């Protein structure tokens, strides 16, 4: 079922909600709420409501890039 010769890149490893919270410097509650609303990409293991949730670091980092703003872009700052 699993190929023992496959090595996962560090960016492809699954992260727990508390690890994503540390990465984003927010609470774990915020991470899980944003996952539930569809703002953060992730995986619910066993597809059960309330089941464990995991996130790919590469997907979180890619999403962060879409949120990047320039200081002088006129966003009211």
Q: How would you characterize this protein structure?
A:
The protein is an alpha+beta fold. It has one domain (11-66): Arc Repressor Mutant, subunit A. The chain has three helices and three strands. It has a three-stranded antiparallel beta sheet with strand order 1-3-2. Strand 2 and strand 3 form a beta hairpin. It is globular and about 45 Å long. The model has no long low-confidence stretch (mean pLDDT 85).
Determine the structural class based on helices, strands and strand pairing.
Answer: alpha+beta
Which blocks of ≥5 consecutive residues have pLDDT under 50?
none
Number of strands: 3
As for the number of domains, it is 1
CA-to-CA gap between the ends? 53 Å
Radius of gyration: 15 Å
Question: What's the helix-strand series?
Answer: EHHEEH
| Broad shape | globular
Beta-strand percent range: 5-15%
- CATH class group: Mainly Alpha
CATH architect. name? Orthogonal Bundle
In the CATH hierarchy, the third-tier topology is known as Arc Repressor Mutant, subunit A
Average per-residue pLDDT, rounded, comes to 85
| Number of helices, where a helix is a run of at least 4 consecutive DSSP H or I residues | 3
Task: Estimate percent helicity.
Answer: 25-40%
Please outline the major beta sheet.
3 strands, antiparallel
- Strand order, main sheet: write it out: 1-3-2
